[in-house]
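Hi C.,

You asked whether I'd gotten around to modeling the 74-residue construct. I have! Everything is below, sequence then structure, no commentary in between.
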Amino acid sequence: MLYSARIEIELEDAKVIAKALMPDDLEWAKASVEGDKIVIDVKTGKIGALINAIEDFFMNIKSSLCALDSMKKD
């Protein structure tokens, strides 16, 4: 069985954050940008891998947003 998820997140700095996520892309888990949205696509045969990949993307997005926010305050 193949498990898949597609998540779209509208963000002001979507291009910058998507670029920061690219080093973590795998063949079955990728982030891209469509307009002002980050699009996360995950397709895997293991439900645990799907959950972990999505959690990793969210944590990395959160870290990226914190870094951008810190840079804007200076």
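If it helps when you're writing up: Helices lie at 14-21, 47-73.

Thanks,
B.
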